[in-house]
Amino acid sequence: MTESVQTWDQDRPIYRQLMEQIVSRILDNTYREGEILPSVRQLASDFVVNPLTAARAYRELDEYTETRRGIGLVVKEGVRDLLLKREQRRFLREEWPVIRERIKALDLDPAELLKTLPRL
Fold first, then answer.
1. For all residues of the chain together, what is the average pLDDT?
2. Which residues lie below 8 Å from residue 19, measured CB to CB, with a gap of 6+?
């Protein structure tokens, strides 16, 4: 699967942004638990990055993956729930306070905002 041209944030290391892309794909089940991840070369090609950058992103995700001899790198079982909890904590710590302040600054009614959400 070839990606559209990726725009990287120049203020953050590309390998970290690539890690976030991989985590997002685990969370949305593009990369499922127990399934083989793309090879380093394929990942580098898909995201148009240096293979060393792709390899570093995978090394940083070592606790969420396992190498199976003769098969490749696989997403560990149970990882999606761990990542989901980690991302929820990060959202509440980093993103939610900014959103909450914006709601307050715009004098928006939280109850009215909730009505606009699709049914979960």
1. 92
2. 57, 60, 61
